[in-house]
Prior knowledge:
By secondary structure, this protein is an alpha+beta fold. The chain is built from 13 helices and 13 strands. The chain has two domains: about 1-150 and about 330-390, Gcn5-related N-acetyltransferase (GNAT) (Aminopeptidase), CATH 3.40.630.30; about 160-305, Aminopeptidase (3-Layer(aba) Sandwich), CATH 3.40.630.
Amino acid sequence: MNVIRDAAGIREAADEWDAVAAAARLPLMSSAQVAAWWTHLAPEDSELRVILVREAASLIGVAPFYERRSGAMLRTYALPGAEIGAGISPISLPGRQWEVAGAISRALARSTSPPDVIDLRRAPLGSPWPAMLRASWPAPVLPRISHHNVEIVPGIQLAKRSFDEWLQGRSPNLRSQVRRAMRSFDRDGGTVRLATSETVGQDMAAMMSLHLRRMAGRGASSFEPVADRLVSAIAEVGASEATGAHLRLWVLEMEGAVVSVEWFSARGGHVSYVNGGWHPDFRRYSPALLGIVYAIKDACERGEEYMDLGPGAHEYKLRLSDCTDAVARTTLLVANRRIASTLAQTAPGLLYDSIRDTAKRVLPPERLDALRALRGKASAGGTKPGRAMPSQSRRPAPSRGKSARER
């Protein structure tokens, strides 16, 4: 077992790391995704703590944590990419989870800077990792687990079906809408393509522009504070991963104008929809739906088995899906000598999460939209309980010389 503390170490382990990510079927946990996130999006006050678990010379598991400190020296270990998509988790080869969890727990507990909180934000709700990390913790009193911010993740069981077989299983109304939109888009000169390593930067920038334009007035997008850095991160992923195979940006165009861009990541037969953007002038083609449908068609042709449509029980996702999963913010509070301080510092944030969960259950959608809009306006003047403002989370751009962290 060893610990990686910089992006260069991640890249050195890329081949065997990605084999584990493919076996775990978690596309957003690839080495390129984690390295790009660390370089462009990690909080400036954080330190990388990637735990590689080996059996002899073979890598069997990865826990790509980073450490950040806040408040009265509260030490939180979190996983990268939770603000981007779902399925953020430690990874291991099938059947080796308990061994890997034990190694991770021992490494964290015996670190020179052990965690007070382990934050598994947007981990699958049914994931065994929180319980395994807790049960493996080498201390008389085990960490306390809590779940908040539960989000539905609609999914599609592709099961290596053809596109026509999948479409036939949808409602007559959806089948008619999809076929009509595809015919109309093709007849009017629309084109569909996957981004390449040469176009991924400009295609991602187009997606971000369309996404933020659509979100304006509907509450703040989680991408807004990091938009430029996220574009740079995905351009870096596109330069190192197999663009079109693992990183998939589906671009719909007509007469030189971008109609929509839909962002997917794939590995191990699992395809994850991250987000997208579409131009309102082309709404007659149902561009967001159409972009996802082309991605489904492609996944069927590749023989892939499952596609998740990302967090959010939106109507268009539910119409496409035939099953649902869920993700949650799962935290483990470590029972160490600082537990009283940890509880005092985390309680406001956990209370906020609990109130938000209750609001999602009891308030109608229009009230939730109004609250999100107010939250977006208020974010410029303050922070939510227990959270840093986006401007405080930005890491400086890497310099050509060695950083203090590298020295």
